[in-house]
Amino acid sequence: MHQSAQSKVNDFAIKLANVNGTGSASANGLLMQAMFRMGIPVSGKNLFPSNIQGLPTWYEIRVNRDGYISRSLEYDLMVAMNAQTYARDVKEVRSGGYLLYDSSWPLDPKLLRDDVHFLGIPLADICVKLYPEPRTRILMKNIVYAGALVALLGIDIKVVDQLLDEKFKTKKALRDSNQQSLRVGYDYVRDNFDWPLPFHLEPMNANGDKILIDGNTATALGCLYAGATVAAWYPITPSTSVMDAFKGFCEKYRKDSATGRNNYLILQAEDELAAVGMTIGASWMGARAFTSTSGPGISLMNELIGLAYYAEIPLVIVDVQRVGPSTGMPTRTQQADLLECAYASHGDTKHILLFPANPAECFDFAVKAFDLAERFQTPVMMLTDLDIGMNDWVVPKLKWDDNFRPDRGRVLTREEIDKLPKFQRYTNEDAYHVAARTLPGVHPKGSYFVRGSGHNRYGGYTEMPDEYQDVLDRLTRKHAASAAFVPAPMIERRADAKIGLVTLGGCDAAVREAADRLDRQGTPLDVMRLRGFPFDKAVEEFLQSHDYSFIIEQNRDAQLRSLLTLETGIAKEKLRSILVYGGFPLSAHHVIEEVITQMQEPEPATE
Q1: CA-to-CA distance for 12 and 77, rounded, in angstroms?
Q2: How does pLDDT run across 72-125, given as a tens digit for each residue?
């Protein structure tokens, strides 16, 4: 017996199960864009495999009128287009929910559930009648089910038509075939089912000051606005689209209007080690340069990251994290590069890290990364992840201050060098323990030998312990001073909260939603989201002010908890881990379940 479906407006989740390589991404993205244009808070998660074609892929869309955008694990509607995953997909539908499937072939009776409504549409049969070419049938099947969902969910079909007009404005035949397929699916639902479903959409006005953008595009735009003119890279999922977007922006905005010549240089290197070497060289010459990569690339770059740290050369690296170790799962998300990046290279090193939580912060922090790298003459790594980088997010419109001027740090001019009796690279440090640098070709007196071998404060070679330690100790003080310049943590406090939730990056939305839901259940928790490393004093103050804090992160080895233990005076007993590292984005459900479980456990015995 079917359970009655719960009536919900602008508050539901759907999951679309497809086969990779069948063109479903365009149809799924079309649906999310239409919901966004209806003014409704929406989020989409593309859970795709690392092969080109054939493996299962899922796309999840969550609509929430209150603006919660983390991944939902309760699916009101499943669109089951992949026979390989039927059993799993049927199981994941919530009780009382719906499942749409291609009824061109009979569904195995063993898959049926009494508490789920099954909606069969003969999608393949429809496309066979409409289109003679096999590939066209496969592609248009996605648009037919998209049309069905437009009717079932109450999506404004005029909005969808407008999106198709915009996408195919120069390709009339494609526009017409897409609109035909959309209407076929739309009309089939109207002729055969009750519509819309009990959970459906109604227009809102929540997106007036919002945009839909992915983190990699926002990062590239931030690099452009920061003044970057040089980039070197080696392709790697999931960071490749950072450089693709940067190239596109440069082709449009980095050309001399009079001559048409490029005012930028983008180099595809033979590997990541070469890419970071090129970036360091360009930065040393005075250009604003960066490289983008993922965890395996950071591993290869370690030696030269150490060179930039010790020789004090600005370096900006964008790390779009994925699942490791080794090749791992290239198209799954994780936060497992924290320790690798914080202490990259052999020997004693510490690096500035930035942790954006969404594409809007990717834009802002990309600009910040260049200023920090040049102010402190050191590597700066911005750590995003696949979820932030490759999924579309609804974020506030990006803002820019036209009065912005890059912070180039302590760079001596020709006139300043000319007045010096002698330039000594690592002397005359300022209040932040940064020594002045020179750029090649500015003045003969400003030349010096750039070395990654032992050197003293004058830039000369040394193997004397006291001279070596003198330089390394200043680097330690310089790194500590940078804490005042990295983005401060975001802290939310609730009355009577004695326990904290601490997180970073892409976990933010799920953690904040979990905190709200737990608060409504009578469990108030304070929340702190870390946005940079080294940690400023507010981080330790938050941790000390709570009985204990849950450290929520997406890796197996509790790397953020380890970093907090190493870099603050907090006793490790005050830090409890919540670890979700399977490769899919975090859900508030994960956080709530683990918080409740751990709070019910007895306190550990103390001696």
Answers
A1: 8
A2: 999 999 999 999 999 999 999 999 999 999 999 999 999 999 999 999 999 999
**How far, in whole angstroms, is CA 487 from its chain's centroid?**
17
SS3 label, residue 414: helix
Handedness of CA 45, 50, 52, 56 (dihedral sign): negative
Describe the crossing of helices 215-226 and 359-376 by its angle, rounded to 10 degrees. 40
**CATH for the stretch 490-600:** 3.40.50.920
Q: Which two tokens stand for residue 320?
A: 């779009």
- Phi and psi torsions of 241, nearest 5°: -70, -15
- For 213-396, give the CATH class: alpha beta
Distance CA 293, CA 382 (A): 11
Superfamily of domain 8-200: Pyruvate-ferredoxin oxidoreductase, PFOR, domain III (3.40.920.10)
**In 10 A of CB 122, how many CB atoms?**
15
Q: What percent of the chain has pLDDT over 90?
A: 96
Which residue intervals of 105-133 are DSSP H helices? 123-130
Listed in sequence order, the residues at least 6 apart from 397 whose beta carbon sits closer than 8 Å to its beta carbon are: 209, 210, 211
**By the 8 A CB rule, do 187 and 173 touch?**
no
- Whether the pLDDT of residue 393 is over 60: the answer is yes
**H helices of 157-213, where?**
157-167, 172-192
Whether 517 and 300 have beta carbons less than 8 Å apart is answered as no
Predicted TM-score (pTM) above 0.90 = yes
